[in-house]
Structure of Type-4 uracil-DNA glycosylase:
Amino acid sequence: MPTSATRYDAGPFLPPGGGLDAYREAAAGCEGCPLFERATQTVFGSGDESARIVLVGEQPGDQEDRQGEPFVGPAGKLLHRALTDAGLGEEPAYVTNAVKHFKWAPDERGKRRIHKPPTLRETHACYPWLDAELRLVSPDVIVALGATAGRALLGPSFRVTKDRGTPLPLSPTATPAQPDAHPPVVATLHPSAVLRATDRDTVYAALVTDLRTAAALLSAAAAPRSAR
């Protein structure tokens, strides 16, 4: 049970350097907030270190926590379909979450693990891992999937209903250390919101529309990146 003395900061667990593999290995032992106590394992990001697009969700779900990979459950399957429909199906992507441990509570019968949204304090504690991923991948575009990812990348005033679908700059407090790594952020709905929606077709279409905005930004950035 966390106390007032509990430290919320993943920073001390980061490795002194290295690539994504070094950070993934170090993250496996992260105890930067109390969420590690109930999670099966750390779920670090997955994908190509040279990917031009990074997709950031909220946190691992039940299946991700069991398998150790992000977006492998129902929301992940829907996301991959939406990426294809948006013209990004062939584009290598790096996928990760703002929080790397599954936060959950048992249902009334104790048979199912029910997702609990992370607090702002837990999201802030985990941000050093996301910051490192963005610095190492150095994408052309970041997609924030849902409110938690949006606030982590765009600041506490972010609202999905107000800010989704428009390219926005990273929050000054969320900018990676690499000076030239300032990719635009396109915020959209989390795929799980589509699965929960009563009008699923309409909400899914909104997700695809926002992903098409990200696809257009990638196309515009293709020429400068190829000249690097």
Remarks:
- DSSP finds eight helices and eight strands in the chain.
- Residues 1-5 have pLDDT under 50 and may be disordered.
- The radius of gyration is 17 Å.
- The chain has one domain: 21-226.
